[in-house]
Design a protein that fits this description.
Helix content is 39%, strand content 18%. By secondary structure, the protein is an alpha/beta fold. The model has no long low-confidence stretch (mean pLDDT 95).
Length: 269
Amino acid sequence: MLFESHCHLTDRRFDADRVETIERAHAAGVGAIVSIASSVADAERVAELTRAHRQVWGTAGVHPHEAARAGPDDVRRVGELLNASSRLVAVGETGLDYHYDFCPRDRQRDLFRAHARLAAETGLPLVVHSRSADDDTRALIDEFRGAARGVLHCFTGGMRLLEEALDAGWHISFTGLVTFRNFDGQEALRAVPSDRLMIETDSPYLAPVPHRGRRNEPAWVARVRDGVADVRGESPEEVERYTARNALRFFGLQPAQAEGRVEHSSAAQ
């Protein structure tokens, strides 16, 4: 079973064929999809989507790009949404983005901390975006060491950030970037233990080769699997097996008896 651990199915680019996109993913062997929220309003849409599609799970959180627009009650509302639905299985997407700097950095850090506190309170994992912010991301991971666990999604950071995250017990996730000719993260990809690695599309962004330049979609997580296998010198079947196992454990899910389904578990680690 393939596990698509990070995509944005509520993005408007899926408005015309969202159901068909989910069906294509299922036909491609994707047994579970986690659709990531970027704002409170988006989290509400994600929650609705998870109720309509048993293959889809979700998160609630405020992306750093949205941090400047976040109101004082947004984190409280995120917590309420998480408490109201067992199908929302993580806090986020949160984090730091110093590449685009759409929001003052101190505001990004404050919002990251608020999400991390929420993760610590609920026991749910954090989904973290970090771009050009390695030092501050490292500091925040260390600040919440032992209290909140998480994943650095679409990893493009340096080895010091990777080592900090792994030492704190975090997971690392890679996208279709691994299939790009100019991908320079081979050392990091090879360094992640097989019990901490996950794969994702981050669709509709970052379509993998040979689909580069098109709208990405969850079915193409198979291309990410193949790219990871190639870099790590492993078989696609092995990568598919352990990345799905890791994602199930990370999000607190377990395989259901019916093929291609997962169920919520209270035994998340």
